[in-house]
Amino acid sequence: MRSHFWTNVPWIVFAAYWAVSALKTKATVRRESFRARYGVMLIEVVGFTMLFNRNFDLGSLARHFLPPTTTTTAIGIALTWLGIGIAIWARYHLGQFWSGRVTLKQDHQLIRTGPYAHLRHPIYTGLDLAAIGTALVLDRWRCVVGVVVIMIGFVIKAKREEALLAGQFGEAFQEHRKHTGFLLPRF
Predict the structure, then answer these.
(1) Is 57 a member of any domain?
(2) How far apart are CA 6 and CA 134, in angstroms?
C-alpha cells in the first residue's frame, strides 16, 4: 500500500497550494449562477468520491481493471505527480485571475503564458491526468468510472469558461483558440 502514499501526497500538495493561493485573487466582477456552479461541483464530487472512496467497491466496481504490476503502478504514480505539477504550474500562471468558479475578475486578462501557450484549460488537463494516474494505482473499476465522471465535469466547466472568455475578449480569444488545444496541447 506504499504506492497509495505516493499518489496521496501530490493531491495533498495540490490542496495546500490551492488553499494558500486562493487568498491572493482579484475581486470578481462576473460569475456563473449558483445552479450552474453547484451542478458541475456535484458532478466533480461524485467523480472524486468514486476515485478515492473504497465504499464504492461494490460488485464489478471492486474488480481490478488491469493486471496489477509494478510498471502500471509506477506509471500511475508518475502520471499523478505530472498531472498535479501541470495543474499547479497553470494555477501559478493564472495568478490573481484564478477562481474556483467560472468568473471574470477585476481587470481580467487573457493568460497565454506557461501551459496556456498550448492549452486553454491546463488545470483540468492536469487534474484529469492525475486522476488517471491515481486510477492506475488504485486499480478498480470504480476509479475508471470516477475518472470518466471527473472528465465530464471538467468539459462542461471548460465550455462555460470558453463562452465567458469569448464574450469578454472577442477576437483575441478566438485567435488564442486557433493556437491552443482544449484539453490536449497544440504545438
Answers:
(1) yes
(2) 9
User: pTM above the 0.85 mark?
Assistant: yes
Tens of pLDDT along 129-142? Answer: 999 999 999 999 99
Residue 43 grid cell: 458532478
- Quote the number of domains for the chain: 1
What Å distances lie between residue 108 and 164, 165, 175, CA to CA?
Answer: 12, 10, 17
Q: Are the CB atoms for 149 and 50 separated by under 8 Å? A: yes
pLDDT in tens, 49-64: 999 998 988 899 999 9
Query: What amino acid is encoded at 45 in this protein?
Result: V
Are 114 and 89 in contact by the 8 Å Cβ rule? The answer is: yes
User: Measured between alpha carbons, how far is residue 9 from residues 2, 48, 73, 93, 146 in Å?
Assistant: 11, 16, 15, 22, 19
CA angle 83, 43, 129 (to 5 degrees): 15
Q: Spell out the residues 6+ positions from residue 116 whose beta carbon is closer than 8 angstroms to its own.
A: 90, 93, 94, 122, 180
Under 8 Å between Cβ of 164 and 108: no
92-98's contacts with Cβ under 8 Å and 24+ in sequence apart are 92/21, 94/123, 95/24, 96/24, 96/25, 96/26, 97/25, 97/26, 98/21, 98/22, 98/25
Q: d(Cα 47, Cα 31) in Å, to the nearest integer?
A: 24
Q: What CATH number is associated with residue 44?
A: 1.20.120.1630
